Amino acid sequence: MTAEAAHVRPVPVADWVTITELYNNPYPIYERLRPEAPVHWVPAVNRYMAVGYKACHVVEQDQETFSADETNSLMKRAMGHSMLRKDDPEHDIERRSYGGVLRPKAIKQHWDAVFRRNAATYLAGLKEVGPGADLIREFAAPYAAENLRLIIGFYNATQADLQRWSQTLIDGTGNYADDPDVWAKAEQSYREVDGAIDEMIAYFREKPDASLLSRLSSMSIPLEAIRANLKMTIGGGLNEPRDALGTTVWALLSNPDQLAQVQDGDRWSDAFEESIRWVAPISMYPREATRDTVLEGVAIPKGARLGVVVGAANRDPAVFESPETYDINRPRKPHLAFGGGNHFCAGAWVARASVVGVAMPRLFAELPKLRLDREHPAVDGGWVFRGMLSLPVQWD
Question: What is the per-residue burial (b if ≥16 Cβ within 10 Å, else e) of 32-60?
Answer without folding.
Answer: ebbeebbbbbbebbebbbbbbbebbbbbb
